[in-house]
């Protein structure tokens, strides 16, 4: 398991629409996940790419249809794996892509149209690069398209952070820390970063690294972008299969809650 657990989100994230409300509810409450899956299929989602068909409306770089139609989605390679990214709103897409959003053709359509178009060897991450989202394997996609959402395992927990135990790191992942330090230095908008180890004992979860990041100006920095970049660093600098949590340190998520007595491994100079 990696940072991209099947369903992730934080109670303080703010939804922009109905599907985001359901997504966040499911991230924090197992019993709400079936409702999200049912309504998700007929919800509008956003992708980089194009759609074709007689009912397509084109508005500048934006195409839209509510009908079953042919879609062409821009997938990308992530460590040899095909990833299809979709988003629950334009705000989420802008959060993830930043300046890369400008000039790209994008469309919105029903989620079922996107799921039908995904390559058999690809998986889809809803809100890739954002602070909350859902990962869909090809098996899950097929069950949803066949109307068999009740067969999906929705019991995978996303533990509230109050249910985690934490401690100072016993085996710091030095290769990852060195690359993260370089990345933070080049960005210039990170105030400090911390390393601890956490586990959810109720899930028999092993101790694993947790990175806490405090940004200098939350209004100017997209934390989802930092998460996505640290994800890429982790895949090259951590052993395969190693879990890692990445959390933002804010006034609500104080340093003392998880990193008491721990000195930062990075501090802005």
Overview of the molecule:
- This protein is an alpha+beta fold and 269 residues long.
- It folds into two domains: 145 residues, no CATH class; 107 residues, 2-Layer Sandwich (GMP Synthetase, Chain A, domain 3).
- Helices cover 28% and strands 27% of the residues.
- The strands form three sheets. The chain has a five-stranded mixed beta sheet. A five-stranded mixed beta sheet has the order 3-4-8-2-5. Strands 11, 12, 13, 14 and 15 form a five-stranded mixed beta sheet that branches.
- α1 runs antiparallel to α2.
- The longest helix has 15 residues.
- The radius of gyration is 19 Å and the shape is globular.
Secondary structure blueprint with pairings:
Layout: E1 7-8, H1 18-28, H2 33-40, E2 44-52, E3 57-59, E4 62-64, E5 70-73, E6 75-78, E7 81-86, H3 90-97, E8 106-110, H4 111-117, E9 122-126, E10 133-136, H5 138-145, E11 165-167, H6 174-187, E12 190-199, E13 208-215, H7 223-237, E14 245-248, H8 255-259, E15 266-267
Parallel strand pairs: 4-8, 7-9, 13-14
Antiparallel strand pairs: 1-10, 2-5, 2-8, 3-4, 6-7, 9-10, 11-12, 12-13, 12-15
Helix pairs in contact: 1-2, 6-7
